[in-house]
């Protein structure tokens, strides 16, 4: 009995100690899991964060307009690389960039200023595409479609500018 009693006592004692360790390990694992979940949540939140301008329809459209302009400009004559092509590239990039920069400003006056700059760049593009059309640069239907896109974007920009000035009054 003594031999088996010691064996029983010994196994019980070691079982008792390992039970505490198991409970401790479970508690630690739960805390690690909670912290891991919080970390993943924060990571996901930063990955899904969008700047305010990214939610604006006018910014999305003007960004796509810039992409479409770049695609069309590939078909322009090479002698225009540093002339009309360069001017159009600068103007088309300026529109979504000014919208983005304007939304980062605190005062409505500054926001409206950047929206006005974007509108000016749109009008510059409109004028330059009319000239390109008269010079028979690029595909005529593509240029006409871009002119329609510019008109649509200018309408949305004006509406956005009006919404900014109406909320500040």
3D architecture notes:
This protein has 169 residues and is an all-alpha fold. It folds into two domains: 1-49; 52-168, de novo design (two linked rop proteins). Helices cover 82% and strands 0% of the residues. It has five helices and no strands. Helix 2 (57-73) packs antiparallel against helix 5 (140-168) and helix 4 (108-134) runs antiparallel to helix 5 (140-168). It is elongated and about 90 Å long. The termini are far apart. Residues 1-14 have low confidence and may be disordered.
Number of strand elements: 0
List the secondary-structure elements in sequence, H or E.
HHHHH
Going by helix content, strand content and strand pairing, the class is mainly alpha
Strand content: under 5%
**CATH fold naming of the largest domain:** de novo design (two linked rop proteins)
Radius of gyration: 32 Å
Short description:
The protein is mainly alpha-helical. The chain is built from 5 helices and no strands.
């Amino acid at each position: 009995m003594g031999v088996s009693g010691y064996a029983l006592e010994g196994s019980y004692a070691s079982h008792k100690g390992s039970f505490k360790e198991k409970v401790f390990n479970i508690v630690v694992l739960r805390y690690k899991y909670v912290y891991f979940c919080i970390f993943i949540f924060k990571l996901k939140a930063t990955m899904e964060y969008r700047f305010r301008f990214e939610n604006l329809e006018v910014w999305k459209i003007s960004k796509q307009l810039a992409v479409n302009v770049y695609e069309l400009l590939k078909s322009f004559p090479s002698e225009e690389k540093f002339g009309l092509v360069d001017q159009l590239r600068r103007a088309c990039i300026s529109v979504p960039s000014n919208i983005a920069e304007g939304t980062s400003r605190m005062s409505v006056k500054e926001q409206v200023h950047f929206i006005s700059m974007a509108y000016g760049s749109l009008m510059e593009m409109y004028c330059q595409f009319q000239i390109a059309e008269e010079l028979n640069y690029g595909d005529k239907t593509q240029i006409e479609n871009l002119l329609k896109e510019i008109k649509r974007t200018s309408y949305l920009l004006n509406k956005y500018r009006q919404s900014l000035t109406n909320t500040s009054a």
